UniProtKB/TrEMBL annotation:
Species this chain originates from: Exilibacterium tricleocarpae
Catalyzed reactions: acetate + ATP + CoA = acetyl-CoA + AMP + diphosphate
Enzyme Commission no: 6.2.1.1
Annotated keywords: Acetylation, ATP-binding, Ligase, Magnesium, Metal-binding, Nucleotide-binding
Sequence similarity: Belongs to the ATP-dependent AMP-binding enzyme family.
Name by which UniProt lists this protein: Acetyl-coenzyme A synthetase
Cofactors that this protein relies on: Mg(2+)
Amino acid sequence: MAEASQGGKTGQSLSGQVATTSGQAAVAALPAVDSPQDYERLYRHSTCEGEAFWAEQARCIDWLRPFEQVKNVSYATEDLHIRWYEDGLLNVCVNCVDRHLATRRDKTAILWQGDAPADTRSISYGELHTQVCRLANGLQAQGIDSGDRVVIYMPMVPEAVFAMLACARIGAVHSVVFGGFSANALADRIIDCGAKMVITADAGVRGGKSIPLKANVDAALARAGTECVDAVLVLERSGADIAWQAGRDIWYHELVARQADRHSAAGVGAEHPLFVLYTSGSTGKPKGLQHCSGGYLVYAAATFRYVFDYREDDVYWCTADIGWITGHSYVVYGPLANGATTVMFEGVPNYPDLGRFGQIIDRYRVSLFYTAPTAVRTLMSDADAALAGSGRDSLRLLACAGEPINPGVWRWYSDAFGNGRCPVIDTWWQTETGGVMIAPLPKATALKPGSATRPFFGIEPQLVDANSDILTGAADGHLVILDAWPGQARTIWGDHQRFIDTYFSTHPGMYFTGDGARRDADGDYWITGRVDDVLNVSGHRLGTAEIESATVSHPAVAEAAVVGFPHPIKGEAIYIYATPVAGIEANTELTAELCAWVRKELGPVATPDRVQWTPGLPKTRSGKIMRRILRKIAADDFASLGDTSTLAEPGVVEELIAGRLNRA
Ligand code: 6R9
């Protein structure tokens, strides 16, 4: 039987046949949030008696050894640490799977919809348990231990979730890399986290196209060397022809076929890392945000319950890929911790046609739907096609995340897609925050198109000016969070100093989000976008620094600067200004070659939209590229370039304007 091998003080078993309902009982005992007054009351409690509030929320999951210390946090840069429930022991996988067996063994955990409409699977909690146990046994048989890193580079198939949960079950740290990232990007991540194993598929299938995942892994490992990764687990998804390295490559189905379908799950400390997820910053290489087991799960579970007003009979669908934080928290951990039915979709919104989302909603009677504004804009681009063939009358709530949603798009989402019957919940948060931070609660918050409105329980946002002074009342400034919350990232993998410098140094004593925001007279927040050099292309975070370094690695490019420009579907698109190496003539072939180069270096998500060749870039006398000017030119908005007095060579700007690629 599955049992706790490290039961701690109580020694109780929380998995397998002896599932307890203690967490579920705690959920049932929580006060309802059905009105603005309920929200105000609970918000006050959550901030004035924060530790009591977070202890109540933490009791909604099952602990192998209960915690006594709720919070141990310091934001002081010389001793920055964030710890929650640190003396508690738990197993995240047991919380997401085993503890539901007593009451939900036959309930559907994952409703999978493949890229082809006929391709579907339904996986019950009982089946999920068997699959995860087999894989956990298989990973251990391969020598994966607690604390080892496992990179997951997979399509959106149930085995990707099995892989995440199997890692969690044995205390291994997963790092999911989005399938749209290139072999090089994958290699960087494998090296940075020192992965011991890569789990992948022969090829992914998306929008009718094949994505050569295994070939990318081969190329990545050729670059990363063999120091760390000694095994590649390969799921047969498409039957594509692949190269095979005997002694290293293992078929997923062969490994799990040999394993028992019970697995004894050990507890880990609440602060034990659950996963590392890479995201882009304003400088340098992507950073691996490290999330922990206990606090992260408490936060993912609580936000899922409140923000979506989750009920037992809901069918919930979040369209995010598991390669992003939204997929981690709201395809996998949040829903499964609550025993929900989570829909998982392998495809894209416009294949075979733009009606796909609506058709899937009808087919599975989806009641809660969570997507990105870029997807809504894609649907809006041909609204008739997007709405054809579906009624979407099962929906009761619509949500979005990832980028600002403008009021027109919000209204279409609500009125047309949601038939005017569903609240639109605009959720602001980040890879770093682990879960939703600012969002309306369906029954308790007055909605405003384009505003993420109010902070979640226990979250204290503020706006500050450049001097870190807190602004009061209606204001516009940098968005910071004053105190800690259980779901926040604990560090950057292998670089704690960078974590401190990036998030806790700009505004001392506060967490700096990198976003700007406005607060209106009602106290509602409107996120205005990044205040640093991070782009948001189709809801994907990309650092201009990464794109620049990929661009200048092309032998014909001497220098480059990258900015974003507004794009009707993607939100923001990539504009490269590049200076060719002396003697090289820039032409359309070179442009195409450079675009393909950047795409290959970073992956399809980073495909450039514009390349403007220029003999020079606008720089200050100290040599700093004036991106502000480049952004304006890319946006075809150069009437007011602002202060250009510090330009070393003012003539460059005239030339850039004359050669601009975006013209109204
Ligand atoms: C969850 C996620 C984080 C950045 C964030 C901000 C932008 C996310 C938003 C939003 C406006 C929203 N962002 N949600 N902007 N309104 N509701 O997307 O995480 O990939 O780390 O991106 O996305 O700029 O700082 P991540």
